[in-house]
Amino acid sequence: MSQNPDIVVDRAKSQWSDLWKKEDYWAIWLGLFILAVALCVVMSNRPKFDEASKPLLATIAQEKQKPFQTIEFFEAKAALKKLNGRDVPFLKSVLSLLATPSSWHANPLDSLVLTKAAADEANAKIQPKLDAAKQAEAQALERAKTAQQAAASADYKDTQLNDQAKSAIGAWQKAKGDTGKIAKKIKKPFNRIGSLIGLGLALGVLVTIGAVFMGYNPLQFFLGFLGVYVVCVLAQIMGRQDVMRGWGLNAEIWSIVIGMIIANTVGSPKWLKYSAQVEYFIKTGLVLLGADVLIYKLMAIGIPGIFVAWVVTPIVLVCTYIFGQKILKIPSPTLNIVISADMSVCGTSAAIATAAAAQAKKEELTLSIGLSLTFTAIMMVVIPFIIRATGMPEILGGAWIGGTIDATGAVAAAGAFVGPKAMQVAATVKMIQNVLIGVTAFFVAIYFTTRVHKQEGEKVGAMEIWHRFPKFVLGFLGVSIICSIICSNLGADSATILIENGTNKVGGAFRGWFFALAFVAIGLTTNFRELKSYLKGGKPIILYVCGQLFNLFLTLLMAWIMFYKVFPEITSKI
Q: What per-residue confidence (pLDDT) applies to 550?
């Protein structure tokens, strides 16, 4: 049966009103507003940063001409690294407001308040070690200066003196790194109760503005949001406990668990569920994620990373979906595609976009995200252990982590456990993979509209596909393109100072809170009885496990071929 043309016309006419009535568009407007404010503030301070960085860049360029990286080179690099857009007073205040609860061990209140007396007591044990490290660093610097002066006296033509200077400077850098690690343990007094209250009110006003245009009662939505936010803060506190965090039980998992406990025991109150708008929150977070997907950063590891992310991912996605339909015979194709995209692309972000494109049920999305968070917690511990136990090269391990572990934050944490190069490669591969969020949503919308959901005799036109397509993906891609163009015009050094370490730090902090709110909302609106039918026979779990095993094998194989067989010259420069 062909589609009623009046419906098509009505949909076309509603496109304009959708711009202020639909959550997809409000996710875009909120994301753009946050990034635009941060960008305006940081760009207004650009002359100051340019003036400070110019002599440092000149020093770096000059010292690069010498046969080894000198003391002056490292000092200029360190000074350049301290130039961050996030240190602009206004952005610094915003980031202070966005700070999450701190880590704690025995008392949850330690995550909210640390008095000066408590900080001094904790630092008393660390300060002697820090003083000793600083002394060792100073001694190492003196030896480096002596060795470098000897090499300079020979006009850098004596290979032996150059090697001695290089070795001494390397020892100084190691000592400096050791000092930095100890210095990070020094605690500063804080009280985050006030900032968390202020943040809740500010976020509440921000999201309620959009909710009003979408037809919600402003007072009811605002009060309900504050309830969701309180649960979110509780989950953040639980996720910062040292032991549980070490085992991968992070705030994301606690957000869903606490929400589910409330929903399946006393039951989520109607006033709370009213504002538990999963897609509104997470779509806003995904638009903000686009700012981190910068084209010049994607090219940092070049073609090998692109092959690992853009070749393996579609193969795993398609094969997993076919496996679910043909072999496991999962009754719901929408559940199948959401799990397949979640597991193969980039976790919850891809699941949200794919679920919107395929018009999956809320319970299917919840199940997919639950599987993703569970296995992510396991993999971020197990995979680094395997890499270190087998002696796998750091770059190969990083590419493997970036292509297989779902969540971006978990990827960075797992990569850091292996080493700095592994973290760099893992984060870049995951960033390249994140580009596929929009591409996946686009093709899923086409496939499900024209094949899966198409009724016999129905003619599906471009307007129907457009209607199905999740519009917030356009915001994700648009933000990525705009930020990439801005960074290209600024140049790599200014882009790092102003965008990566300025605008994107603010966007990333907001994104973290929006994702956290979304996970809480998922838990508050999930009933175990509704999920029971989808878990029948354990097919979703089998699908995820089998798909992930295939993903692990294929990603490792592709990474080894690309990084070590086809493009070893690129690998050697990382």
A: 95
Hey, is 458 helix, strand or coil?
coil
User: b/e map of 316-339 (b: 16 or more CB within 10 Å)?
Assistant: bbebbbebbbeebebebbbbbbbb
User: At residue 191, what are phi and psi to the nearest 5 degrees?
Assistant: -140, 105
378-418 residue pLDDT tens: 888 899 999 989 999 999 999 999 999 877 777 877 888 88
Read off the DSSP letter of residue 108.
Answer: G
Rounded (to 5) percent helix, strand, coil in the chain: 80, 0, 20
DSSP secondary structure code for residue 311 in this structure: T
Distances (CA, A) of 472 to 197, 360, 440, 570: 29, 16, 13, 35
Residue 366 CB neighbours (<10 A):
23
The C-alpha atoms of residue 362 and residue 278 are separated, in whole angstroms, by 9
Q: Give the rounded distance of the alpha carbon of 197 from its chain centre.
A: 25
Task: Round to whole Å and give the CA distance between 436 and 438.
Answer: 5
Report which DSSP code applies to 101.
P
Whole-number Å distance between alpha carbons of 149 and 335: 67
Q: What is the pLDDT of residues 494-512, one digit of tens each?
A: 999 999 999 999 999 999 9
Q: How far apart are CA 342 and CA 351, in angstroms?
A: 5
Two tokens, residue 209: 């503005």
Handedness of CA 347, 499, 294, 397 (dihedral sign): negative
169's tokens: 């400077």
The Cα 487–Cα 298 span in angstroms is: 13
Percent of the chain residues topping a pLDDT of 70: 95
Residue 554 CA to residue 557 CA, distance in Å, equals: 5
Q: What is the pTM of this model?
A: 0.87
C-alpha dihedral, 308 to 512 to 206 to 103, nearest 10° = -170
Q: Angle at Cα 259 formed by Cα 255 and Cα 262, nearest 5°? A: 150
Least confident of 137-146, 202-211, 433-442, 479-488: 433-442
Residue pair 287/482 in contact (Cβ under 8 Å)? The answer is no
- Residue 314 in this model has a pLDDT that exceeds 70: yes
Helices (H), 448-538: 462-468, 472-490, 492-495, 504-524, 528-532
- pLDDT at residue 2 in the model: 42
Condensed to tens digits (0 to 9), the pLDDT of residues 351-366 reads 888 988 888 888 888 8
Tokens 């370490």: give the residue: 501
pLDDT exceeds 50 at position 212:
yes
Query: H/E element holding 42?
Result: helix 23-44
Taking the C-alpha atoms of residue 388 and residue 391, their distance in angstroms, rounded to an integer, is 5
